[in-house]
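Figure 2 data, in text form.
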Amino acid sequence: MLLFIGMSLLIFFAPLPQPVQIPKDRLIRIEASSFQFIPGEIQINPGDRVTVELVSTDVVHGFSLDGYSFELKADPGQTATGTFTAGKAGVFRFRCSVACGNLHPFMIGKLQVGVNLLLFRGIALGLLAIAAALVSLRKAPRRRM
């Protein structure tokens, strides 16, 4: 049992090797319309210099990125452009920052900077739980009827 506890702590807290990515200049075009962003999920590398082109196709829309001081506002049929450097790794939400209609609160997207370490740690913990269950089933005394 102590072995499984030790392994789970190792999975939680051990630093995982990450491939070194050379920062790049990226241009991301995001279309905002009818309570959605297209694309709704974006993946970049830490250190990338990102230029966002926000295009509004119907009404005034905004783009606000959680975790960064980055915000854009685009009028209908217009493109707003801004640049930021992805200095923080993790998963960040972006949302419309202008009340654009009834479903405005659901206009959310996801920016992933770097590798999703939480996914890999979750998979490892799931596999460890399966191994612990198999070991405990093997050690359980069998009853005779």
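Caption note: Helices lie at 2-13, 117-139.
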